[in-house]
Specification:
Pfam families: DDE_Tnp_ISL3, Zn_ribbon_ISL3. The chain is α+β, with helices and mostly antiparallel strands. The protein has 18 helices and 14 strands. The chain binds a DNA duplex through β5, β7, α4, α5 and α17.
Length: about 450
DNA sequence: AGCACGCACCCTTCAGCGAA
DNA sequence: TTCGCTGAAGGGTGCGTGCT
């Protein structure tokens, strides 16, 4: 292993001493803890490498007594990464030690190393490369098998094992928690075994994310209050107490669950979902008014329908041309209700853009005035929703904690789902999600650190 | 829009085989 | 002889595509 330390920088470490005595072939082959004894080209293009572990002693797995007495040496063929674009046939000369403790029931035991653990038939670095391809590159296991000449089950087990090394959520310090739902498969129908009735099953999953970093802390089945509370109750008291804000979608189930387990924590409602409710309201008004005016659904020759995307776009980010087109739509007396609904939507956006409590309270007065002027069932319903979530909206304005990171995590999850063409084993699905996320978070943290180093130079 | 089809991938099962 | 790692085989599933 390359150590960026040298005598001129610091005192030589144990590993740098070993590096210094390694022969050139072992340095190039670079299998941690092993030295190359021989290497040759094979007639069909591969290469055969024989290697032996550096360590000449080992502790008995039963009694722990260290032994140097070799009972026999076996040649074990193991799989390994290719070197220099060539496949490698790796042969390990593996010693079998005699236990030095006379009282120990075990007579002999074989050598175990980091690269070749108990019973292993491929090196740890080969498995690590396959796991990296799956979790970092998003490569399907199926194709990873072909690249590394491993079986599907071998790689899948390695990926699952890797997910087990992820720090438990209780070990991750979290200030702001994001909870979000997503459907991970199409709705399914099944016949109830007793009543023989057809039941619709929506395969929902809920994701728990560190809202600051986007690191996925957990994934649970379903999106009901009970599923959320169960996960929260599994956390330690200390972990729950460090939470300051929880960001959720406007869902009563989520709010109830958080209130139940964390009565003291502040809840922030995700502004993106609130804006979406405003856009939904505007679309409902547009569709209703079009039906009333034209007696049919909108078509591309109707200006309101043609500019439906323009209506939904943020008003303050419209181009002059876009604003002009919108004004032409609103000039039509038949569509003044659409214009009123648009004004309500824009007031809602302004309300969410406020940066402090006095500003958001003023913005709410403008919003309520627009709602009163519009005087429609759709806008009244939106105003009722805003009233219902007013406390949570104020928390969002004050803390600016959102579910944006959760949403991006969900995009990643959907990508995994698409690659997978349908996971049936939830355990595999979860280990892929958590494994991918934890690696992404590690990369994100590393990049600013490295940029900082460059800046110092 | 609805449907059929095939691809790409997941996942289980099972047997071979080498290590213990 | 037993254990368990490993790979092959084949069934199952979701999605994209192209046709009607």
């Amino acid at each position: 292993m390359f150590q960026p330390t040298g005598p001129h920088l610091s005192l030589p470490t144990a590993s740098s001493v070993i590096d210094a005595v390694r022969d050139p072939t072992s340095v190039v082959f670079n299998l941690d803890g092993y030295q190359v004894l021989a290497a040759c080209d094979l007639p069909l293009g591969g290469r055969r490498v024989s290697a032996v572990a550096n360590s000449v002693e080992a502790a008995c797995p039963d009694c722990g007594v260290v032994s140097t007495r070799v009972h026999q040496r076996t040649r074990q063929k193991v799989k390994d990464l290719g070197v220099g674009g060539k496949d490698i046939e790796l042969v390990i000369i593996k010693p079998r030690f005699l236990c030095a403790e006379a009282a120990c029931a075990r007579r002999t035991f074989t050598q175990v190393t980091d690269q070749l653990p108990f019973r292993a038939r491929c090196t740890a670095r080969l498995k690590a490369a396959a796991v990296e391809a799956v979790l970092d590159e998003g490569m399907p296991i199926w194709r990873t098998c072909a690249r590394y000449q491993l079986g599907w089950a071998t790689i899948n087990t390695a990926v699952t094992a890797d997910a087990l090394t992820i720090p438990a959520p209780d070990m991750v310090p979290v200030r702001a928690l994001g909870i979000d739902e997503h459907r991970f498969a199409r709705a399914k129908w099944f016949k109830h075994p007793e009543t023989a009735q057809w039941c619709r099953v929506e395969p929902w999953m809920s994701t728990f994310v560190d809202a600051d970093t986007g690191h996925i802390l957990g994934v649970v089945d379903g999106r009901s209050s009970a599923n959320i509370t169960r996960w929260l109750k599994q956390r330690s008291q200390a972990w729950l107490e460090q939470l300051q804000v929880v960001a959720i979608d406007p869902s009563s189930a989520f709010r109830n669950a958080v209130r139940q387990v964390l009565p003291a924590v502040e809840i922030s409602v995700d502004h993106w979902h609130v804006v979406r409710l405003g856009n939904q309201m505007l679309t409902e008004v547009r569709q209703r008014v079009t039906r009333e005016v034209l007696g049919r659904r909108g078509r591309k020759e109707d200006s309101v329908w043609a500019h439906r995307m323009l209506l939904l776009r943020a008003g303050d980010r419209l181009t002059d041309a876009g604003l002009h087109r919108l004004e032409q739509v609103f000039d039509d007396e038949d569509y003044e209700q659409v214009a009123a609904a648009w004004a309500v939507k824009e007031r809602l956006r302004a309300l969410l853009a406020a940066r402090d409590i006095p500003a958001v309270q003023n913005a709410r007065i403008d919003f309520e005035m627009a709602v009163a002027a519009a005087d429609m069932a759709e806008t009244d319903k939106l105003a009722a929703t805003v009233a219902k979530w007013w406390t949570e909206i104020k928390v969002f304005v004050r803390t600016q904690v959102t579910n944006a990171r959760t949403e991006s995590a969900n995009t990643g999850i959907k990508q995994i789902k698409r690659t997978g063409r349908g996971f049936r084993n939830q355990k595999n699905y979860q280990s892929r999600i958590l494994g991918t996320s934890v690696r992404q978070t590690r990369r994100r943290r590393r990049i600013p650190h490295q940029q900082g180093l460059h800046a110092q130079r």
